[in-house]
Predict the structure.
Amino acid sequence: MTDTLTPVLTDNWDAERAWTLAAYEERGGYAALDKAFAMAPDDVIAAVKESGLRGRGGAGFPTGMKWGFIPQDNPKPKYLVVNADESEPGTCKDIPLMMASPHTLVEGVIVSSYAIRANTAFIYVRGEVLHVIRRLQRAVQEAYLAGHLGKNIHGSGYDLDLIVHAGAGAYICGEETALLEGLEGRRGQPRLRPPFPAVAGLYASPTVINNVESIASVPSIITNGPAWFASMGTEKSQGYGIFSLSGHVINPGQYEAPLGITLRELIDLAGGMREGHELKFWTPGGSSTPLLTPEHLDVPLDFESVGAAGSMLGTRALQLFDETTCVVRAVLRWTEFYKHESCGKCTPCREGTWWLTQTMARLENGQGSEADLDLLLDQCDNILGRSFCALGDGATSPISSSIQHFRDEYLAHLTHGGCPFDPAASTAFAPVGAPA
Amino acid sequence: MSTPMSADNSLERAGLDQKTWDELREIAGRYPEARSGLLPMLHLVQSVEGRITPEGIEACAEVLGLSAAEVNGVATFYTMYKRKPVGDYHVGVCTNTLCAVMGGDLIFERLKEHLDVGNDETTADGKVTLEHIECNAACDYAPVMMVNWEFMDNQTPESAVQAVDDLRAGKEVHSTRGPRLCTWREAERVLAGFPDDRADEGPTAGPASLAGLKIAREKGWTAPAGAGQGESK
């Protein structure tokens, strides 16, 4: 029986100066390199496939399969790009990982690049995290000096250059083709697919783009074996993952556990909801995943079960809101976010998010009518599945799910002539036990 | 590799110093294709000029062989690039849903009132630029404020006011999970890829980052032993 929490990626976060090469190597860091270099690159890909690792950036696509799509007979250079643009509201796992242990990511980059036969790799990190960028820059510099990067790594004959690239503020660059545009020095607008990045990505060359946590998991798979990784988690969602609890819980934070743990277990570990209050609604994996309620507390947090419950596992960004929170206010704010971050490329998203915001604002202010709920759902219907990328789809998730679960609360705004909630009661600095 | 244009009498045409021109070319030279350097190059322009200036746009365009319009198109897309001068300290209050609900809205209102500025405006002394920002990936520390893109975790209206007062008074202020705060221009230089050698300041992780690990240690919970580990549990 696997333990409830299984620290792997977070295991060295309480170590003294864990971000340094010395501390990382003392714990056996960079040992996966020699093991990987003794294998054929295709065998590294096979091991990652066998482990069952699925993308940890939200979509859950099998990582090894993605690597297998790289056409090795293509004469162009191959590239690995790490998506470190963590910006999905609620998501806060990659940033502490890179802050505490940037070498875990760098080691993963080297093994993964070797597998797909890339000689140049990039970490595209959002620009708004200065100290994380400092630690990444330092880790890469240290890895070069130690011979983990550069020419003929560990005498293997394999060469790799790694470039840390800071973004400049754009949620859309978390979308992999928009990220490539940003990395090519352009406006971050998604590309039409096909061709997929595996065939024509960065500089129109075969490119793998993976989330930080996915790449950081690779050394543990190579070191301990794919069966070890697959022994954790559920049948189709294997391995461990970092679960990020935020909001009205006693001890918010990062909890690394096998996939399939439930929110009830996690809240219990986190000391329960804050004193005198109870859970009202939550997101399983960021604001783009439909809202769930207390009736979903026992849903196993794996890709299949959360999907069957009508939402998505996403990034395991568990944002927890208690009964002091107005769901209409919460959803309006997310809607304003999507409007702000829409890149403007396609009409349903660019125009639709504006219309959604106007309709939502009217309802939050107690204006409008019950017919506006149907109008909202109609607007969502014209965006979902009709946008260029997933940003538009994501914008509809909180709206349609909140109307499904909290229709009465929308109506209460109309009868009340405005928001019936006191925004001070939901704050972290509200007096304990304050009424809603 | 594409070749950045060599230096000529362009120095007089755009008022940047020789060092900046050299560094812009250095950034472009880091990449297989020079244009990939544009985002960090614009960060460098901000570190030197205090904002994105027409001169900075012209310089990037010249180094990369692009039109000024192409560079402008990029500079206006990303929210970290500023057209108006930014103060010594860029103060960003997260007002995305989770932080807003946890108190970010009240903190932002309080700072607007206290500093007598609106969103995206700078105090008369040129010290503080206030802006409400989107999710900065620190939700377990909500409500969050960023100063020059360093984390100021678990804020209250009072702690936020104290921080901006201290900054305006020239006192030393530290990130709650990182180093002593530098100026916005110094921060932009790091983002351009010129490290300031301060990676070793601050802790490995903040308390919330360690919440699960602390419990695992207390209970003796670990991942299963693997092929690469010595002993089995």
Notes: Strands of chain A lie at 79-84, 120-125, 161-166, 207-211, 240-247, 253-258, 279-283, 317-322. Chain A has a mean pLDDT of 97. The radius of gyration of chain A is 22 Å.
